[in-house]
Amino acid sequence: MTGETTHPLAATIPEDPEGRLVGRVIAHHGKVVRIVSSQGEVECKRPHRQEWVVGDLVLFEKGRPRVLLPRANQLARKSPSGGEDILATNIDLMLIVTACGDLFKMPLIDRFLVAAAHSGVAPVIALNKIDLSTGPEDMEAVSEYASFGYRVINLSAISGQGIDEMAAALAGKLSVMAGQSGVGKTSILNQLAPKMSRKTGKMSQATGKGRHTTSMALTVPLPGGGALIDSPGIRQFAPTGLAPEDLARHFPGMEELVGGCKFRDCMHETEPECAVKEAVEDGALTESRYASYVKILESVRDGREQEWWRRPEK
Ligand SMILES: Nc1nc2c(ncn2[C@@H]2O[C@H](COP(=O)(O)OP(=O)(O)OP(=O)(O)O)[C@@H](O)[C@H]2O)c(=O)[nH]1
Ligand SMILES: [Mg+2]
Ligand SMILES: [Zn+2]
Q1: Below-70 pLDDT ranges, the chain
Q2: How far apart are CA 22 and CA 38, in angstroms?
Q3: Do 156 and 295 reside in the same domain of the chain?
Q4: Cα of 209 to ligand 1 centre, how many Å?
């Protein structure tokens, strides 16, 4: 079963060493999953007691998708019952979308970066709405992330500026978008894949905030190869299983410092000879970045990670 690649998403599916047909789950709804392979798209029921979610790779047997292949990574959040909901798997890249103006919040970017690092997904930061920028502040703030080694792309989904750079960054990859309502995720998607045009929100004039326009998960194939997942679950997901002591090495700008602390289990709060606190004192790490770390630490300790996204303080 080699068949010609007809579906754009089929190109993101790794080949099976034994030449068997492999499919990718592109949508799931209850027990029904939609799977793409080089043979086209099929809809089928997932096996009893197996969770097949967007991004999963499944092996076909006797013409039908049957065996779930091991996952390279997974994005999961706590379920209301205390377990976890797997939102997407085998993700190459997390596009963290923020925007100039009131919607620009560094603590939110930090939380997404921590979530990406903890999940083993490479992040890219997109600063959208640069056409609305009234001064250098947002761009300077976001360039701080570039100085920590993160890739940052400035763009405007309205003027189209930076869209080519974004398209190149996403080409051939399976990516997810994260970012609060109104930052322009769907608008970016529409620029990248114009034929799939989706609904964007009308800004509320009073607040300049969006209104959660996108309500269904969708895997959109990109013209340059690869696909982008726009899902309400992922755009504000808090990771499961993040231990407080692992936070610092996932925290932007702190990864490099933590090795310099006197105590190996230093939490960088009140411990003596803490390299992080020293960096704050001599200005190498800003007070606001450190405050952002402390806030995340508090919520991880209390198991209130879900609240990360409900407190988007500036
Ligand atoms: N000026 C300007 N407005 C933009 C830009 N990108 C998006 N917008 C506007 O911002 C509003 C929200 O955009 P959406 O694309 O719906 O935002 P979203 O992130 O998908 O929002 P949710 O689906 O609610 O999560 C719309 O009115 C867009 O027209 C941009 O680059 N510049
Ligand atoms: Mg949207
Ligand atoms: Zn320390």
Answers
A1: 1-7, 195-217, 235-236, 306, 308-314
A2: 8
A3: no
A4: 9
* Probe residue for ligand 1, chosen from 108, 128, 183, 187 as the CB with the greatest number of ligand atoms within 8 Å: 187
Residues 179, 256: one domain? no
Q: Does residue 76 lie in a domain region?
A: no
Per-residue pLDDT, 199: 56
Tell me if 17 is assigned to some domain.
yes
215 and 183 in a single domain? The answer is yes
For the chain, list the strands marked E by DSSP.
Answer: 22-29, 32-37, 40-45, 57-61, 64-68, 74-78, 84-89, 93-99, 122-128, 151-154, 174-178, 218-221, 227-230
- Please tell me if the CB atom of residue 191 comes closer than 6 angstroms to any atom of ligand 1: no
Of all protein residues, whose CA lies closest to atom 25 belonging to ligand 1? 181
- The residue whose CA is least distant from atom 14 of ligand 1 is 184
User: Could you give the number of structural domains in the chain?
Assistant: 3
Whichever domain contains 102, its CATH number is 3.40.50.300
